[in-house]
Amino acid sequence: MATRSNQYDVPTYDGDFAAWAFHQAMLLRSGQLHLLDRAWIAEELEDLGHEQFDKLESALRVLLMHMLKWDFQLERRGRSWTTSIRTQRKHVLKQLKRNPSLAARVDEAITEAYDDARDLASGETNLPLSVFPAECPYDWEAIINRRIAMPDDIE
Fold it and tell me: What span, in angstroms and rounded, lies between the C-alpha atoms of 38 and 9?
């Protein structure tokens, strides 16, 4: 196993990330702030923030794809789509509850997710991409609260 360490046998960010992360946590907890790799720690913290946005966008992508399929392929509607829509709505709301600052970026997440959702819906339905609106046809209220259920479902 090849790991790179510097001359003091301190793990490096690009040598062994896991060892580096544990070492940085140890330095932080022990108050040895002057030894912290501040530039890389800042980079990793930013990446964590981006990951939370990506989780929100991912849940919206799947949710929007199934909403498009629901609206444009009526004859194929099924419980799996309603289940997916309910589940992804929960994921979106959970992500916003855990990260309230992302609420300010919901429109951005919807815009970014919709383009992929449209492509996925086209691929999964075998309908031409042009069948699906170029812009997201759903507002936030519809995305989160519009009733989508099989006729015999009791909510």
Answer: 18
